[in-house]
Amino acid sequence: MTDGERILGLGDLGTNGMGIPIGKLNLYTACAGVPPRMTLPVMIDVGTNNESLLRDPLYMGLKQSRVRGKDYDEFLEEFVQAVQEVFPRCCIQFEDFANVNAVPLLERYRNRVCCFNDDIQGTAGVAVAGVLAALKITGKPLTEQRFLFLGAGSAGTGIANLLSQVMHQAGLTLEEARARCHLFDIEGLVVESRNDLASFQRPFAHKGEQLRSFVEAIETLKPTGIIGVSAVAKAFTQEVIEAMARLNERPIVFPYSNPTSHAECTAEEAYKWSEGRAIFASGSPFPPVRIGEKTLVPGQGNNVYIFPAVGLAVYATEASRVTDGMFITAARAVAEQVTQADLDAGLIYPPLSGILEASVKVAVKVAAEIFKEGQARVPEPEDIELYIRSRMWKATYKQLL
Questions:
Q1: Domains in the chain and their CATH numbers?
Q2: Chain segment 3-55, per-residue pLDDT in tens
Q3: Predicted TM-score of the model (pTM)
Q4: Cis bond upstream, residue 259 (ω within 30)
């Protein structure tokens, strides 16, 4: 193994500091067996606009206002190019970048170097996995679903984009698929007449009135699922859940914002207000809920189901690029592992207790996709699973006593 095979976890100091890239890389090892010596946390420090930090004599970051615009872009370009020289076969994971930077950075580099953004693509992958598993409960085809997103940032548009591609694979045109995904933000429903939209939001800006009420949007659009990526706590009110339950026999309710204090609703609220009919998954963990004679176990749509396995496959195959097709494959592989017993309990994700083996199964499918797409830089083995397992790190300790 060479230094060029590393996975770089790239974080932005302006958000949550060095802890994020370190923590994410730890999960690569703990949940998918990526060798820890093949990971490297990196923090980009371009200053801060937090006045208290600028005045703090113990603050270790760059004491200046945040760099923006051309200087920021040139600095990131210099960094990415340096990475290609030092670690020519590494994968860069962009993590925790603000919307204003996250989407442009991904678009700028996704077809030039091996990279991905977990907040955009990993979140989208786990959401698609949840939707595919939820359809095992509803028994309805994906092409008949309609989704309303509370939150129109990089996470919401990322999920909508990947969902549209999966719908397209199921038989809809891409335009028809996008027409089944609607965004709602602080200004109301995202429609084409608005002049405050970013370019990445435009594909999901449809004709219609700019509704200001989320409940009114539900009543008008009649979605089969609502997905919360707004970080607005309690935004899925009783009126919202009851409207979804009135329109759907089994409404899909995914309050994905985390931590728990930012969740759009709790599991208990979703189950109680829908009379136990909601198909629920959240970004934060919630305890089991007793509804009548049944105990429902809420699932957690955690990115840990997706990015460590994708990272393992990319590392093992030395992939030259990370594509949406790989995340779609990962989502399908996660959904395939949800058993009938899981579904009966209310779960639409595999138990986290078996995450290592779940990641191996996902990584094998993703690796096969990498070879299929011609993105691998190693020969395709006869047994991909055996090859994947041979590249995994296992904790072994000497017996001292």
A1: 3-119 (3.40.50.10380), 121-303 (3.40.50.720), 305-374 (no CATH)
A2: 445 566 555 544 456 788 888 999 999 999 999 999 999 988 888 899 998 99
A3: 0.93
A4: yes
